[in-house]
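Hey team,

Sharing the Cyclic GMP-AMP synthase run so nobody has to redo it. Sequence (337 residues) first:
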Amino acid sequence: MANCNKLFLDFNDKLKLTSSKIRRMITARENIKTKIAEYFKDKSKYSFSGTWIQGSYKMDTIIRTNEDTCDMDLGVYFKSVDSEVTTATVMDHVFKAVENVTSTTPSKKSKCIRVIYKDDFHIDIPVYHYNSEEHNHPKLATRYNGWEESDPKDFYVWFNEKSEDLPQMKRIVKYLKAWSDNKKGKFPSGLAFTIWAVKHLELNDRDDVALYEVLKKIKNDIDYSWFLPMPVTPFDDVCKKLSDQQKSNFKDALKAFIDDAKDALESKNQLEASKLWQAHLGDRFSDGADEDTDAKEAALRRISEKVLASNAYSQRSGVLNDDTLGVKNKPHTNYGG
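Structure output:
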């Protein structure tokens, strides 16, 4: 089996946001918060209570796309909203508050306002009404369906508990998102991939093996049913918006990924295996070494055992092996510490 674990760890590093992009996003977030606070300070029908970062940025599963873009979710919270004010009106006011934050006009989405920082990142702004004395959970403003119960903080807590001391879980989520980004089709959401990763990850010393096993289990799930419930309020189906054609396309892409992942794991040549992973994860996944890396690692393990057992010989070429024509090494006594 071609061990590509190191290539996956390198790939994970390439998916991380740069420090400069993070600084720009933090500045943008603070600017948006200031604009919204100023806009609503004299509006008697609203009581703005603050903002809260949510989603993948908060959970450390955010990725840079192939185009070097990313997104942040910044929830805007109101402790009170006049009962006569519609959700669409609330969202329109938030739109006006951030309308001139950048040179690009924000987008009005069904459940958020999107502020676009062209060719860099965008910030989605969902709007919530939440008074802890009146509500068990926040109410999300939707443009067409009024207020809907939704609790991003509960999801963050749920994921944090599930992923605590499990960095591999976060990496698997990011690999799945990178696959979706590379394929550019209408795949299940990052939310769905996050839930699947939590549900199916079996820890492994190797990320390539762990990802392969998760992919197989996702296929088993959707072969039986596409129903994937949100684990917290509102407990709805996170795959319900996918059309039949989108589901079919995803199943085809998933099967192709599983087949190539299996071949990659069974390959003896790391370069050959890396090419199979690249077909699905993209060019940021590095080329492997054009050699049987497993055999090389096995040989190194064997000679290390001989060194520790004082059965290793140094040859004229400098190579260590068990050929008795060489000079026998002295017993190894340096065990570190």
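The domain at 17-151 is CATH 3.30.460.90 (Beta Polymerase; domain 2).

Ping me if you want the raw files.
A.
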